[in-house]
Specification:
The protein is α/β, with parallel strands linked by helices.
Length: 649
């Protein structure tokens, strides 16, 4: 190995190094000429071998003519089988088969010529052993030439990036793992130096090797094995691992500062390049200990198929995912409504590229403008409304309570009233756990909106009149949504830190965007009206632990490479979020991840009058007066870390 490295060192430091690095693929005619020269060289070697055996040659043709005939026949079949067409540095088994076919065909053609000449002129041109030896040497030299070129390029490229390669061990030794190893070995430019396989499940393979890499039994903790093999990373390719086993592996590796990579199953892949591209770092979403969601697709389909669906806040992270999922249930048309021009345009392009069977209408509008919304309802007459438009940033709404009320309360009221007026079948509102015992203006505004749609349902759905079914869905933080902490932490890590956390004890519930939207659709389909559905958010996550995991997933060490900085709770922020009010109870549903919160339902006239009163004096009152009126509508609203705390006394 040292000798090999010294050779590559000489090349690397030579004047030809730059030319070598920038060399392209050789023209086919040059490869063809090299192959012809190799056959000529093989003929010379054969001649010297046979001569050394003191064998007498036939004298029908002189030596130059015999050589010319051998070279000409081989050259002809190189053209026939296009052996020169492959790129040498990427030679494969197929190229070897082509060479074998070409040289074998040439050998038999020369034998036929030889025996035909013998029949006509009474003497052969070649010794039969001469032709066979030449055939064997030609094939071996041609094949060796390609192997050497391939090896040289691979070794040179690997040597160039030697310090950049990650020493990695593949977890698993089944067909999936072997395919991954093959792909990573041929990857250009290389990212990994593979050291071996770890197999926990098949003891019969222990002590053996695959692709010249050893198979190690997992008889110790994985971090001990990685350290013994001097590895930097583990690539998990074992398809039989459960979610819990995978998470345990990842967390063990992260705890001992080993990088972890994941690979999906290879059944959906087309080629090795695609396989190597799929080897990726674990995302924080992959470490959520959550069971997969099973949807009642028949129920959802019956609510959406062939109907007109209106989605507000469609350009946001939740709204756009609801749009994508609704699209899969074949509605007649989808109206995507948002006030953000560019994101709405981008979503429209994306959705139209996915399906041209569902009619997509993009409406640029603000839900605070009831007149514009009225035109939308009048033109399209939606059957189902998914209301995801809202202002959601807690500190920002503390500074702008009027905007929180305008959008989250008045905007919701506009949509709900129009849904009743235009006989919408279902109105599904996306709420938040911050509406529970709210400590912020944002949470309180969402709780007022919940109260309004719940009381409106009770008023309009008496035993005599069956009107719009109003359904509220309530869940916590969504990983990766606009403005959530995961994109913020990712950006801070990319910038070298520090990661900013408001409090070391702060805890939040998390779910992924697709999970949240799946449950919104399910709850919307199962709801009979008036319910507030809450979602099983799994185990709460300590934000400081989340930050440390993200730092380790990025390949850094917390508080060493990336600092974690405590900055104090923001206005309106709680240490712990809740999914139920103090007086609420829950009822189960057929989906174990969805519960119904039994909140006390207020009187519609009282809630409507309070909102109207708030709106009537809106232009002339201060932020303090707005928040004071909000606290009267939501008595459990107690401000935290906010200038509005004085109003609670």
């Amino acid at each position: 190995m040292r000798m090999g490295h010294s050779i590559f060192d000489i090349i690397k430091n030579s004047v030809l190094a730059n030319r070598f690095r920038s060399i392209g693929y050789l023209p086919r005619w040059i490869i063809y000429m090299i192959d012809v020269m190799i056959v000529f060289f093989a003929s010379l070697i054969t001649h010297f071998i046979v001569t050394s055996l003191n064998v007498t040659f036939y004298e029908n043709l002189n030596m130059p003519l015999r050589f010319t005939m051998i070279v000409a026949v081989n050259a002809f079949f190189f053209l026939v089988y296009r052996t020169y067409a492959g790129i040498l540095r990427h030679s494969t088994f197929i190229d070897g088969v082509k060479l074998l076919t070409s040289t074998t065909t040439s050998y038999f053609v020369l034998l036929i010529i030889n025996y035909s000449w013998s029949i006509i002129y009474g003497k052969k041109i070649f010794l039969t052993s001469d032709l066979f030896i030449c055939y064997v040497i030609s094939f071996l030299l041609l094949f060796l030439f390609r192997i050497l070129v391939k090896y040289f390029f691979e070794q040179y490229i690997n040597f160039e990036d030697q310090k950049k390669l990650i020493n990695a061990v593949i977890y698993g030794a089944d067909a999936n793992a072997i395919s991954v190893a093959n792909a990573l070995k041929t990857e250009t430019p290389s990212r990994f130096r593979l050291l071996g396989f770890v197999d926990k499940f098949n003891q019969n393979k222990i002590g053996k090797s695959i692709l010249n890499l050893p198979i190690i039994t997992q008889n110790k903790k994985i971090h001990v094995i990685l350290r013994a093999m001097k590895a930097d990373a583990l690539i998990i390719a074992e398809k039989s691992l459960s979610k819990q086993e995978t998470i345990a592996l990842v967390e063990e590796c992260l705890e001992f500062n080993f990088k972890v990579f994941t690979v999906p199953l290879i059944t959906d892949w087309e080629d090795q390049q695609q396989i190597s591209n799929r080897v990726k770092n674990f995302d924080i979403e992959d470490l959520l200990e959550r069971k997969p969601i099973v949807l009642d697709t028949n129920s959802i389909s019956s609510q959406l198929k062939g109907k007109t669906i209106l989605i507000t806040g469609a350009a946001g992270s939740i709204g756009s995912e609801i749009t994508r999922q609704v699209l899969g249930f074949n509605p007649e048309r989808i109206i995507i409504l948002d006030q953000a021009e560019t994101p709405l345009h981008n979503l429209s392009l994306e959705i139209n590229s996915i399906s041209n069977q569902v009619k997509i209408h993009s409406v640029l509008a603000d839900i605070r403008n009831k007149e514009v919304l009225g035109k939308v309802f009048s033109e399209f007459h939606p059957s189902v409304v998914y209301h995801a438009a809202a202002y959601k940033h807690v500190p920002l709404m503390e500074e702008n309570p009027s905007q929180a009320v305008y959008t989250n309360v008045i905007g919701t009221k506009n949509l709900a009233d129009l849904s009743v007026e235009y006989h919408v079948e279902r109105f599904v509102m996306v709420s938040t756990d911050k509406a529970v015992n709210p400590s912020s203006v944002m949470g309180a505004s969402k709780r007022i909106a919940e109260k309004y749609v719940q009381t409106l349902h009770e008023r309009n759905n008496t035993t005599q009149i069956k009107g719009t079914k109003f359904i509220t869905t309530r869940f916590g933080n969504v990983l990766g949504s606009n403005g959530s902490i995961v994109p913020l932490f990712t950006k801070q890590i990319q910038e070298g830190g520090p990661i900013t956390i408001t409090h070391p004890e702060i805890i939040r519930y998390f779910m992924t965007i697709p999970e949240a939207c799946q449950l919104v659709l399910e709850a919307g389909a199962m709801g009979k009206g008036g319910e507030i559905f809450i979602f099983d958010m799994g185990e709460p996550v300590k934000i400081i632990d989340l930050a440390k995991k993200m730092i380790r997933l990025a390949g850094f060490t917390p508080d060493k490479d990336i600092e974690i900085k405590i900055i104090g709770l923001r206005p309106g922020e709680k240490l712990y979020e809740e999914l139920l009010n103090d007086t609420s109870k829950t009822l189960p549903t057929h989906n174990e991840k969805i519960l119904i919160a039994q909140d006390i339902c207020d009187d519609y006239e009282l809630v409507n009058m309070s909102i109207s009163d708030l709106l009537h004096f809106f232009e002339g009152i201060t932020n303090e007066e707005i928040v004071f009126k909000m606290k009267k509508i939501v008595p459990e609203f107690k401000s935290m870390n906010s200038i509005f705390q004085t109003l609670d006394h």
